[in-house]
UniProtKB/TrEMBL annotation:
Keywords: ATP-binding, Nucleotide-binding, Translocase, Transport. It comes from Ancylobacter dichloromethanicus. Belongs to the ABC transporter superfamily. This is Iron ABC transporter ATP-binding protein. InterPro entries: AAA+_ATPase, ABC_transporter-like_ATP-bd, ABC_transporter-like_CS, P-loop_NTPase.
Length: 259
């Protein structure tokens, strides 16, 4: 059965400053992509970091029968993988070594060294970066580094995959490639994927569900057609926009002006 992630009464902040207050979401289920969108500083990164156990949170985050809020960072890491927005990779590792060590740190004891190496390489191939395997992380372009970081996240085969703007440095080919791959992984492995995106049309195309966050609260939540409306865009993003379907039935957002 597909895993389910339930968030109830979640509050997260930094010091005294509360960013997310009493957030509750209908369970997010595996098998498809959930996009998290919203204006700058809405709290998207803070929410993902709370789900990954990287910032203290009050309330409940339940993955099926496991309460995640009580777990250690390592306990979280067994279920949840988080790919951060900023990539601090000044490490002297090759892309292959970094992918392999991400896999090893997930401590899957049933995996042999040869098995781990094969899985790491297969992940690079699937992302189309096998040719970068022996390059140092510190000699990659921003986009290449983003793909290498994504490889480190997906190689661990988590139940919950959290991706914070994973396509922000990528050209359009690689953006589509990453979105297609992430959507395939969600279906194939029946995992939960929550992805922060700025491109609303891309979110609408690949996500089954879109959660719109505004000042730490849920402004809209549902299938793309329900969550993305001119009213929501006006209220949350302060733009006058049209939401129309293209010849293939996908939602397009045409922004006419800022208001
Ligand atoms: N480490 C931090 N310490 C204090 N405040 C932070 C920290 N990280 C983020 N914030 C604040 O929390 C709010 C939400 O930030 P963030 O979750 O990064 O938003 P988003 O990802 O939606 O752009 C912002 O006002 C930001 O200034
Ligand atoms: Mg962010």
């Amino acid at each position: 059965m597909a895993p389910r992630l339930a968030i109830e009464g979640l509050s997260v902040g930094y010091g005294r400053r509360r960013i997310i207050e009493d957030l509750t979401l209908p369970a997010i289920s595996g098998g498809g992509v959930t996009a998290l969108i919203g204006p700058n500083a809405a709290g998207k990164t803070t929410l993902l970091r709370a789900l990954a156990g990287l910032v203290p949170a009050r309330g409940s985050i339940r993955l099926d029968d496991t309460e995640l809020t009580g777990l250690s960072v390592a306990g979280h890491a067994r279920h949840v993988t988080y790919m951060p927005q900023a990539l601090p990779q000044r490490v002297a590792l090759t892309v292959f070594e970094a992918t392999l060590s991400a896999l090893m740190s997930a401590r899957d004891e049933t995996l042999s060294t040869a098995g781990a190496q094969a899985r790491a390489f297969a992940t690079l191939e699937r992302l189309g970066i096998a040719d970068l395997a022996l390059r140092g992380l510190d000699e990659l372009s921003g986009g290449q580094r983003q793909l290498a970081s994504l490889a480190q996240s997906i190689v661990r085969e988590p139940t919950v995959l959290l991706l914070d703007e994973p396509t922000s440095a990528l050209d359009i080919h690689h953006q589509m490639r990453v979105m297609q791959l992430v959507e395939e992984l969600a279906r194939e492995r029946s995992i939960i994927v929550i992805i922060v995106l700025h491109d609303i049309a891309q979110a609408a195309r690949y996500a089954r569900r879109i959660v719109v966050l505004e000042r730490g609260a849920v402004a809209a939540d549902g299938p793309p057609g329900a969550a993305i409306t001119p009213e929501t865009l006006a209220r949350v993003y302060r733009v006058e926009a049209r939401v129309e379907r293209c010849s293939q039935g996908f939602l397009q957002v045409i922004v006419d002006r800022a208001v």
